[in-house]
Write a structure and sequence with these properties.
By secondary structure, the chain is an alpha/beta fold. The protein is built from four helices and seven strands. It has a single domain, classed as Glycoside hydrolase/deacetylase (TIM Barrel, Alpha-Beta Barrel). The strands form two sheets. A four-stranded mixed β-sheet has the order 4-5-7-6, with no helix packed on it. The protein has a three-stranded parallel β-sheet with strand order 1-2-3. It is globular, with a radius of gyration of 16 Å.
C-alpha cells in the first residue's frame, strides 16, 4: 500500500444461535479493548429472542445491529412470491431495531430483490468462494452500488 492511502475494515458477526447471543458482551469487550466497533447481525425469528434490552445495549455501546434474514433456514429466496411478505417483515424489524444493514443467512442472495428491504446496505455476497451455498461471487472485494427503481439503491459490501 502506498503512503497516505486510506484503508477500511468492516467487522461483522452473524449471531446464529443462543450460544452466540450469550457471547456478545465478551466480544464487544474484546473489540473495545482494541478500538473496534462491529455490526452484530441478529435473526429476528430464530431459536433466541432479540430483546429491546439486548439491542439497546449493543447500540448504546457504539456497535451496530443488522438484520440477518428472518430465519436461518435457507428459504428466504424460495420464490419471489414468498419473498415479498418476508421482505415486509424484515423491513418491520429493521425499522423497530433502527437497523440500516442486512445480511442473508447462508450468504444466499438475490441482489435485485433486496431493493424491497429498503436498506442502506447489504453484505450477503463475497468476492469468490466456490464452497458457499451460492458460489457465484461478485468478483470484487470492493463496495458497489446496486441501482434500484426511480434512482433508489443500496450499497453492496462483499
Amino acid at each position: 500500500m502506498a503512503c497516505g492511502q486510506a484503508v477500511c475494515t468492516v467487522l461483522t458477526h452473524d449471531v446464529e444461535a443462543t450460544r452466540g447471543l450469550r457471547r456478545i458482551d465478551r466480544l464487544m469487550d474484546l473489540e473495545r479493548k482494541y478500538g473496534f466497533h462491529s455490526s452484530f447481525n441478529l435473526i429476528p425469528e430464530e431459536e433466541y429472542r432479540v430483546t429491546d434490552t439486548l439491542r439497546c445495549m449493543i447500540q448504546q455501546s457504539g456497535f451496530e445491529v443488522g438484520v440477518h434474514g428472518l430465519k436461518h433456514d435457507g428459504w428466504l429466496y424460495s420464490s419471489k412470491e414468498e419473498f415479498v411478505p418476508r421482505a415486509a417483515q424484515i423491513r418491520g424489524y429493521a425499522q423497530e431495531w433502527n437497523a440500516s444493514g442486512f445480511r442473508s443467512p447462508l450468504m444466499q442472495h438475490r441482489l435485485a430483490w433486496l431493493h424491497l428491504l429498503d436498506m442502506e446496505y447489504d453484505s450477503s455476497t463475497f468476492g469468490t468462494d466456490p464452497f458457499e451455498p451460492e458460489p457465484d461471487g461478485v468478483r470484487t472485494i470492493f463496495p458497489f452500488w446496486v441501482p434500484g427503481p426511480s434512482g433508489t439503491g443500496y450499497v453492496e459490501l462483499p
